[in-house]
Hints:
The protein is mainly alpha-helical.
Amino acid sequence: MKAPKSPPKLVQWWEGLQTWKQLALSFPVFAVLTFLINVGPFNQPAVRSVLYGLFEGAVLSGLLAVATRTERGRR
């Protein structure tokens, strides 16, 4: 039986952060990314895209925080 491989250093660093730091780092990235997706491929108006970006960025950040906590708990 093989020993499980340790995760990459970036993953270890991310899992070592406190949850509020993970949210503070991931929310702006997800908000900008979803804004650009809504403006570009979905062709939404800019104001609506800002609102969608904020909402969807918050949801994705929360999901990432939950997934990170779950993975950290499994190790």
